[in-house]
Sequence to fold (415 residues):
Amino acid sequence: MADFNPYKMAQEQFDDAAEILSLSKSEIALLRKPMRELIVHFPVRMDDGSIQVFEGYRIRHNTALGPAKGGLRWHPDETADTVRALSTWMTWKCALMGLPLGGGKGGIRIDARSLSLHEQERVARAFIRAIGHDIGASIDIPAPDINTNGQIMAWMLDEYETMKGYSEPGVITGKLVLVGGSKGRLDATSRGGIYVMEELAKTYKTSFKGKKTAIQGYGNAGYYAAQLAEEILQTKVVAIGNSRNALLNEKGLDLQALAKHYQSGGSLSGFGGAKEIGSKELLEVDCDLLIPSAVEGVINEHNAEKIKAKYILELANGPTTPQADRILEKKGVIVVPDFLANAGGVTVSYFEQVQNAQMLYWTEEEVRQELRERMASTFASVYKVMQARNLSMRRAAMVLAVDRVREACKLRGWV
Fold:
């Protein structure tokens, strides 16, 4: 949608929570906007010898609970408003999970798919040189997001430590395990969401065994969501798609065969085990569980009435607009909001920081057990607020998170 602005959406969600909590004018003024914004323009020499200047962002929404935490996205349509929204959602996410972290986010306006491996490294290092004096393990901690990964984080860590002249592995999370990353980080976002659905099934006395699931997005979150939904929930994944196309098989997709097909050609097209459908059509397929795992605003006032899923697990950030939320609520659709659904990623990033600080690393089983317990505990807290205040899951989670940040701001004397 050309007129879609994720930052306005994030502010609308906050305004609703502020009204429920009867926040003061000073509290609203402080929490409605980011506390610090950095916009940089930095040069990079490309493989053909030319120099390109890229625009990058690092924005801290609120640090009342601790240093800012949030990913770095590389996307050709990246904007300051997108990063503002994402940093805002990170504040609520960290608060909701009870982490001693605030909300931050970063990005570069760049087409990552057009870069060679050497160009990716030069961009990563140049960006850190541009923002390096504004980040740190006790200041602001970046991590991977759309079109970035563990290797890019390793280059960024190396550049930062070269600048500083000492080792500080906790400055960046989502690193490769050999350079201080945590086991269990790669699938943490999806795994945390699936753990929440386990708790939801117990609470609502339902089961996803044999039920149909559709997944929008086939990046890291979507790929692992499919695998774990099948493995843990025993659901049947009938549809998967990305921004270019989608696949549908009512009897269930062969996920292993699909993964091999995608890895061999980098495309979903041509897979023999399913019918190709449109990307937008995927959101409207007949299913019990819909998992948007890509970008913002894909479920909106134009298609919310056509959504057939009974449950939506938002592994993407901001996939459902406030207008769509209201439509879905009237239809009785249960939406697990993004800052609960995808909080497994930042939670295991926090575990990575803890391990870096202690120089003591956990087993994958320990990471998963701790993650499961935290996701279950947080879901229980949100459900308690839902029942007490008669709110949707998103509004209950927002109220809980905003109230925690508001209280931290009061204790610090900020408001």
About this structure: The CA atoms of residues 300 and 325 lie 8 Å apart. The first helix runs from residue 6 to 21. The first strand starts at residue 36 and ends at 45. The chain has a mean pLDDT of 95.
